[in-house]
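lol ok so funny story. i was supposed to be doing the assay writeup but got distracted and ended up predicting the structure for this chain instead. priorities right. anyway since i did it might as well share w the group, maybe its usefull for someone
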Amino acid sequence: MKRILKRVIFNLIDRQKFYKYRRLLAKLLSFKKNIVTKFEIDSYGDNESDTFFGYYDISPFQNDKLAYISVKKDEKEADIIIRDIETGKEKTVGATSAWNWQQGSRLRWVPNRQDHVIYNDFENNQFVTKIVDISSGEIAVKQWPFYDIDYTGRIGITLDFLRLGVMRPGYGYTNLPYVEPQSLNDEGITIVDLLEETTKKVITYELISKVMGQNENTNNYENSYINHLSFSPSGNKFLFFWIQIAENNIHKANLLVYDIEKAELTVLEKELSVSHYDWIDDESIVVTAYDKNRTCRYYIYNVNGERQDFMHDILVGDGHPTWIGNGKVITDTYVDKKGYQKVLLIDINGEKVDQLVDIYSTHKHVGERRCDLHPRVDAETEHICFDADVNGHRKLYLLKGWE
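and the output, tada:
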């Protein structure tokens, strides 16, 4: 616990000068136009709340409806809101106190079920999953939180959100104090059957260490954690990050895949430090990763561990990629020196990058409260939604007709 506290303090001190500079730059450049795009764009929410969806890895869209969360100024609870994109009508279908600034409450539509949303909550001193029928208002409560669910809507995977909240602020939950167990050997990933309400732990720190080829005597589990779980399209595999923190506070993310049917864990990447990814199909993934010089590029991996970078001299920098088919990717950028973030359309086959939106950020929100764009795509309606910090307010934006 002392090491964890030391790391948190280091993070705060180390970043103060950087954030002070960014806030000063934001004031100096506040005359600039905040959003530049040739497409139609809408924003949701008011100046009394922060509105956003969460991470880029799941979709808020279903049948011309958009799901998002709204956080009031006291920042205690987040309302779960469903908006009809065409009519503009909104409906609050629930609230949650299990949420964070980067990934929300893991809110999403339940696969293979119309008008049902699923999200994490905290009640009776424990984390739970709630499934809401937005038509009837009926709520089903499951006794575990989830990180991802497969295409059937029945099988989920989960981890210790309290540990994640300490190791990676802004990604886990902090509703309760985290108490580190005497041994972290059995810490890991659990598969949950939401219908039968049964669980099975399939990944442990000890198993990961063996597969990584690490010496059991030199393992430092206190400085390791799991994040970014994601089912493959058919649900027979899932990816995750095994992240180890070095003395210089660099988070080195290794990419692993677990084959559920074979009960087989494989390391896909431990040389580069993986940052973000998205499944292309059951056999391949689009990935952003950093080399030893901290240069980030885009790659395509297969589940056998082979990798190939693409557009090497064009795509230099990190982003949150979503594969949309036909060799195309929607992604974003982090804030540049002038204070701008971009939503981009990448055409791999044509080696072309189109800028869809250029957003000037005020940088009011920094650290775990920072506002990455996290673009999410609805392939059916050609809508993209993203979160942005414009005029000092975090809001959800909808981009229409970009294709």
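Residues 93 and 382 are 26 Å apart (CA to CA). The first helix runs from residue 2 to 28.
back to the writeup now i swear
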